Amino acid sequence: HEAQKTPTRLRFYESSISKETTERLLLENDLHDALANQELFLEYQPQLDLRTGQIKSVEALVRWQHPKKGWISPGVFIPIAEESGLIIPIGQWILETACQQVKRWEAAGLPPIKVAVNLSLGQLFQQNSVEIIQNVLEKTQLKPKYLQLEITESMTINIDHMTTILHKLKALGVTIAVDDFGTGYSSLSYLKDFPIDCLKIDRSFVQKIQSNSTDKALVDMILSMAKHLQLKVVAEGIEEIEQLSYLVASQCDTIQGFLLSKPVSPRTFQENYVTLHNDAKYILDSISASK
Ligand code: C2E
Ligand code: MG
Ligand code: MG
Ligand code: MG
């Protein structure tokens, strides 16, 4: 009888794990139907080109409106999609929808907009990944230079394979950005092999740029390294005017963050396009006036 008794602490541990697992399985099950039920949609976050004051690009971010549970963060469901393999159909849909959207904005009379799309490792390492992306470009008739693919440092697992794929993608004419740069615990040597166009400085470094000298040093280091390697830089998660001010002074190329705009629907982006530029001009002018 003694042997069958589970210590209280262990029982608690087991039950909390299984609750988490059950929740995850339920979500995975629902995610199977999310595409067909049209519960997934994309929002777009504008990026401001600091040299011209123009919004020349956006990042596509996927959202899931669950019929019962409401809004579920991509931070929650993307890992589930990745582990279950659902990222393959979902990722394909994201890519196609984002490329189509750029064509729609163009048809609506907006100046050319480049869209950045986040890719998961499983998407890039699937058979024919390059052909699939090429097909999306052909199907949507989007010029490849208007598509930027975002990868992360976690994709340095297999440098040789990744290098081959990225070179093929570059040959299509798309550009490649490293997302969340500096957070991946990987060596920097992949920068020698991967044909990269752009580094995205992670929000965590930018946030305390004014108060933390280490974060400031890291941002300076990334900007200087990017300059030497002739890479563009997008700084993510800009919420404060002081952060923007510092990045303007440091000649960062592009910023993205709530200060300019949250991720918005395609319609809102289109309708607010002019207003967004006025806001951007106002902010940039106030920075140069305060010098
Ligand atoms: P990410 O690619 O680094 O995207 C930037 C995240 O930062 C987005 O969160 C965005 O809403 C948020 N953000 C932007 N500006 C600010 C700011 O000023 N302050 C703060 N606090 N946050 C800001 P989101 O949309 O929740 O996405 C989280 C992550 O989920 C993304 O990080 C990306 O890794 C993943 N993800 C989102 N959409 C996709 C997708 O279509 N495919 C894949 N594979 N992953 C995606
Ligand atoms: Mg991203
Ligand atoms: Mg990021
Ligand atoms: Mg991320």
UniProtKB/TrEMBL annotation:
Domain EAL: 24-277
Superkingdom of the source species: Bacteria
Name used for this protein in its record: EAL domain-containing protein
Organism, as annotated: Lysinibacillus xylanilyticus
Residues of the full protein shown: 434 to 724 of 733
